[in-house]
Design a protein that fits this description.
three-stranded mixed beta sheet, mainly beta, single chain, 13 strands
Length: 148
């Protein structure tokens, strides 16, 4: 499945600011949602290794961010691609992703997190794995309100 982040603040039927009680039905677009008690959130685990988790904001009622996480397997029965501006964010080497984004947009970096403006008021954060000294690819991508 191609997941295109150019449509932010919406990703498929999941939209930043939507009421959280509607998120389970919206997530079915990506697969079968599971309730994660530890984080208190609905998550879809795709066969490719990708997980998709919308997170609530401070009001505990509306979606403030959507997190994509995982190592995508090349041999997955249903491969996934997470893209922004035609750039595959989770499979290309992270330095190449940053260079390609920086050719078109300002990119800020703070402690292994690279951020670009995906749309007015919406940020795209690309996060390197914390447990790897020299990671090859990004481990997480988060779409969120810029003031979150």
């Amino acid at each position: 499945m191609l997941i295109d982040l150019d449509t932010a603040p919406a990703v498929g039927p999941v939209r930043l600011g939507m009421e959280y009680d509607r998120v389970e039905a919206a997530l079915r677009h990506f697969g079968s949602p599971s309730w994660m008690c530890m984080g208190g959130a609905w998550t879809v685990y795709r066969s490719s290794g990708l997980s998709i988790t919308p997170r609530r904001g401070h009001d505990n009622r509306r979606i403030e961010s959507i997190r994509f996480e995982g190592t995508l397997w090349d041999d997955a029965a249903e491969p996934d691609s997470l893209r922004f501006r035609g750039i595959d964010l989770l499979t290309l080497p992270w330095r190449e992703v940053v260079d390609r984004l920086a050719a078109h947009l300002p990119v800020t970096e703070e402690e292994r997190v690279f951020t670009v403006e995906a749309a007015p008021g919406v940020e795209l954060s690309l996060i390197l794995p914390w447990d790897e000294e020299d990671p090859r690819v990004f481990g997480q991508v988060v779409v969120s309100f810029a003031d979150a």
